[in-house]
Amino acid sequence: MSPDNWNDSSLAATLLVMTSTAPATATPEDILRGAGLRVTAPRVAALHAVGESQHATADDVLSSVRAELGTVSVQAVYDVLHALTDAGLLRRIEPAGHPARYERRTGDNHHHVVCRACGTIGDVDCTVGHAPCLTPSDDHGFVVETAEVTYWGLCLDCRT
């Protein structure tokens, strides 16, 4: 599906609401312990911030963590985001021309749609086959684990 062919119903049908692979009843503390990480206030606050913002920038997380905890350094937030990403609790995405974003939806191989006008990002489920959704014509001996696809277009708000 190319952005030129998007319409309200096809776009709405492919966008997903952000979900985490952790059970709905799991607390941030449970999630951290389950990943073998120490439970710290900045880590808990960062998980909460990313969960609330879906595709949060580091600045979004910093603002939220500071609102919750008070003084926290920029470096501390970047360290937390790095640790949570390395542990597989967050996924870092980097749409071209946009700051890195963090999301809690991990463990699957979904893709993203980005509005060229306002930068809104939505999740798009893997549309064909099993992960990684795309089969390269030549894998050069690699074992392909994921494929990253970014759809670009205009969201409903920016089209009106």
TrEMBL record:
A GO biological process of this protein is: regulation of secondary metabolite biosynthetic process
What cofactor is this protein dependent on? Zn(2+)
Q: Name where it mostly resides.
A: cytoplasm
Question: Where in the cell does this protein reside?
Answer: Cytoplasm
List positions binding Zn(2+).
Answer: C115, C118, C155, C158
> Which InterPro entries does the UniProt record give?
FUR, Fur_C, WH-like_DNA-bd_sf, WH_DNA-bd_sf
Q: Name one GO cellular component term.
A: cytoplasm
Report keywords, A-Z: Cytoplasm, DNA-binding, Iron, Metal-binding, Repressor, Transcription, Transcription regulation, Zinc
Q: What is written in the cofactor note of this entry?
A: Binds 1 zinc ion per subunit.
Q: MF terms per GO, please?
A: DNA-binding transcription factor activity; transcription cis-regulatory region binding; zinc ion binding
Q: Which domain of life is it from?
A: Bacteria
Per the record, the similarity remark reads: Belongs to the Fur family.
Which PANTHER family does this UniProt record tie to the protein? TRANSCRIPTIONAL REGULATOR FURA, ZINC UPTAKE REGULATION PROTEIN
Report the protein name in the record. Transcriptional repressor
